[in-house]
Amino acid sequence: MRYVSIEIDGQPKLGVRDAQDNISIIGDESLESLLARGVDLASYAKGRPVLQTVKAADAKFLPPLARPTKIICAGLNYADHTKESKYEQPDYPTLFFRVHTSLVGHNAPIVRPKLSDSLDFEGEVAVILGKGGRYIKPEDALDCVAGYAVFNDGSVREYQFKSPQWTVGKNFDGTGGFGPDMVTADELPAGAKGLKLETRLNGKVVQSADTSDMIFDVASLISITSEAITLEAGDVIVSGTPAGIGWARNPKLLMKHGDICEVSVEKLGTLRNPIVDET
User: Cβ neighbours of residue 244 under 8 Å, at least 6 residues apart?
Assistant: First the structure.
């Protein structure tokens, strides 16, 4: 099942996208609310009345989850990206948080802040949890996954590297592309393994990888994170980016006003965001 959150007449609506790119509106309740109630999203939409149908091309997309309970990101989770970033490969996940005010939906602009011109792209897979807990065993971790989405972890590098921890550079308002769909886990390989991930800037491929190349796979990220932090339904884990980031290039390739950045993940779809300068 492919769920989308879109805006109609100024109000958020929950819809389901079909293979013909039609979106069937099935209600007002958010994915966050459904996940908190423990609803099985793989079957929830089946047989529900359709209130309205819109074409995906005409829809105003919102992030699949507008206010996730937590957004936990994994850095340095592809060895080629660690190498280009000139870090030693850590033997423990490099975790940091994002805040919900940094999120934008499909086709919405990613905002280059007026404080810096160092806005960079990072194509990633986002994992959306349907349940959580503490000390989750690796063999049980994938049972916690409700679905997956595409993410662009837009990073303001100048601010990311102002200090040893990366929080500010990863949390400027309007820098985190998220969407367009949340695809339920039953429609994907276990742990979203073996999927092609590709980032394009103005149509040119700048990142290309296979999700099987993650150092800490989805089950490991869930299990290890839960050793320290109680995970909850509605949490989002952003699983890391491969090599090709603009900051590691010579000369640097950074996003600017008027650019179009697209992140595609096999079976998940394409997240597209124009880049605009903050006004």
Answer: 81, 84, 199, 206, 207, 208
And the tokens for 228?
Answer: 């320290």
Q: CA dist 60 to 14, 23, 35, 64, 140, Å?
A: 12, 11, 23, 12, 36
**Cα 231 to the chain's mean position, in Å?**
17
Residues 106-151 have pLDDT tens digits of: 999 999 999 999 999 999 999 999 999 999 999 999 999 999 999 9
Does 30 fall in a domain?
Answer: no
Q: Does any domain span residue 117?
A: yes
Structure tokens at 238: 């952003």
Tokens 């805040």 belong to residue: 99
**E strands in 11-142:** 11-17, 22-27, 52-55, 60-62, 71-75, 94-98, 103-104, 110-112, 119-120, 123-129
CATH number at residue 259: 3.90.850.10
What are the beta bridge partners of residue 202? Answer: none
Task: Say what the pTM is.
Answer: 0.98
Is the predicted pLDDT of residue 86 greater than 90, yes or no? Answer: no
Q: What φ, ψ does residue 84 adopt, rounded to 5°?
A: -70, -25
* Residue 243, domain extent: 63-277
* Beta bridge partners of residue 205, listed in sequence order: 200
Distance CA 156, CA 167 (A): 10
Which single residue is written with the structure tokens 């979203």? 192
Instruction: Give the integer Cα–Cα distance in Å for 51 and 243.
Output: 43
